[in-house]
Predict the 3D structure of the following.
Amino acid sequence: MLLTRTYLKSAVAASGVLAAIITMVGLGLWQLQRMQQKELRLNSIAELSGQQGVALSALNLKSDLLQDVPVQFVGQPDLNRLVFLDNRIEGGVVGYEVLVPVVFEHGQVLVNYGWVAATQSRQQLPVVSIDPGEQMYHGVVSVPQRNPLVSETAQSTDPFPLLIQQLDLPKLEVLLETELVPVVIQLSAQKDSAFVRNWQPVVMPPEKHFAYAVQWFVLAMAAAIVALLVFFSKGRQYDSSEYKS
């Protein structure tokens, strides 16, 4: 009876270990899948970057592949409604990203001109120089995601320039009192620009996903080896006990 209970406990433990190993292997395979997705995405970006940008009005806004697509369009910035995105860090320096609603042939779109350093006083926003005339814009599409951990402090009664804490487009439409295209255009880098534009198309490179996959596979292998050693040792003890009995 005692041996039966012991075998039952061992079976439960073995099931738990097996489930953990399967989970770790699954996580490793998922990381490999993410690595392949990132590689395809980087190849797509590299291919698109060598081509002329598509017209902003021709974008399929319902597509899942909008991020980092190069675009171009003619528009005129509304400099009466400058927006500063707070707490942006570039090279260890705190600053802001400057966003401007730009009027084009099919409405208005928010354009990210890039990063500028903060002034010595939090009460004073930097003075920026932007061409007010109609011009050709070149950049890439960014699809901002709202961070639920960040609280927006800007109110519709606040004066412009407006200071915001995150890129929440529905909230910005209220603050700007206008309808926006549901993407942000990050302008291409220019040597003579006063704005820093170090846009990173992919947050995590494929190599990191591969490293994480290897870690999960190593953990699964280690768990399997330890489990085999433990259960083999237990099995020999049970056989010895049955022989003595």
